[in-house]
Amino acid sequence: GRIIFDGEDITKSRTDEIARKGIFMSFQLPEEIPGVSVTNFLKYAKNKITGQPVKIFQFKDELKKYMEELNMNSKNMERSLNVGFSGGEKKKNEILQMLVLNPKLAILDETDSGLDVDAIKTVSKGIEMFKNENNAVLIITHNTKILHSLKVDYVHVLVNGKIVKTGGQELASEIEENGYAQYK
């Protein structure tokens, strides 16, 4: 297939080119990067995406504000990216990345995987903080629990790469009650 974003075919674009166009992706299993602090990773990424130098004191204040909103320990700013982080800390860290980088499109691949109830609420809060009329969030999930904490516009059911059903929040409730088997 092809991927068209803002009217442009980005199918064969490099990851850095896709990020500069405004697409962010979180992963089910976030990578650990020893030796690169959360702050340095985000500062570098923001610089590469915007093409503008990052003012470090203002940037650190922004990071601390978001970390506080996401119930993250501000000491994590200086830790190596995701190294030794719990599953919940890794997922919150990805939401922090999304907030700082402020993409046009955030694709969250099973961002709720392995999270407890409190972490799901925190991640949902971060998603709600991010969403506005100038961006979009695509959440890929097998579990509808995260959708309870979000105001979703659409729910799509995919089977073998094709959308077989589309609805609103009520579709998520229907799936929770009856499962996915009816769509296979």
What keyword list fits this structure?
184 residues; alpha/beta; 3-stranded parallel β-sheet; 7 helices; globular
Distance between the termini: 22 Å
Instruction: Write down the overall mean pLDDT.
Output: 92
Could you list the spans in which at least 5 consecutive residues all have pLDDT below 50?
none
Number of helices: 7
Which structural class best describes the helix and strand composition?
alpha/beta
Q: What order do the SSEs take from the amino end to the carboxyl end, as H and E? A: EEHEEHHEHEHEHEEH
Helix content range: 40-55%
What integer value in Å does the Rg equal?
17 Å
Q: How many β strands by DSSP?
A: 9
Q: Your description of this structure?
A:
With 184 residues, the chain is α/β, with parallel strands linked by helices. The chain has seven helices and nine strands. It has a three-stranded parallel beta sheet with strand order 3-6-7. β1 and β2 form a beta hairpin. α2 packs parallel to α4. The protein is globular. The model has no long low-confidence stretch (mean pLDDT 92).
